TrEMBL record:
It comes from bioreactor metagenome. This is DUF4364 domain-containing protein. InterPro entries: DUF4364, WH-like_DNA-bd_sf, WH_DNA-bd_sf.
Amino acid sequence: MYDKTRALAENKLIILYLIEKIEIPLSNSEICQFALEKNLMDYFSVQQYLSELVESNLLEMTTENNSTRYTITIDGEDILNYFIKHISNYAKTVINTYAKENSKRIRAEYSVTANYFQEMNNEYTVKCGVYDSDGMTSLMEISINVATKDQARLVCRNWKNNVADIYGQIMHCLSTEVKGDAPSDN
């Protein structure tokens, strides 16, 4: 019984440690993928632990751009710092290595988003965004209505593949004064 309780506590601490080390909010799927790939926990346990960590205010759950992300709270950091010695050296090493190897990739994935949704009239709305390196501060968001699902997919793919050019062109167009136009006070 004691070993089971200890393992449960360590697994929750592992999740807190992972989120703290990555330093940006992580999605449910990223947390699960990490735990499963590293054979630290099974899917159902991760779901249970995430729920319990949110309920006990050690993690904060936010939903943005159709993605649920988890952030460690101040209470979560306090608990982690107090009980960090209960995380095995193996788990810490695995997490530290994962954070070092994947932090940039995860930040990049959060910095560019493109999703589409079917509307009542069978058209699609595509929402594209570019975010600061924290993954939360919006630099630009665009909503576009298109007629078909194929168009929506194409817009999403083109946005993700060409975001630097698109963002640059839009910023140039919006921030360059057109000859003959007097600046307005708006």
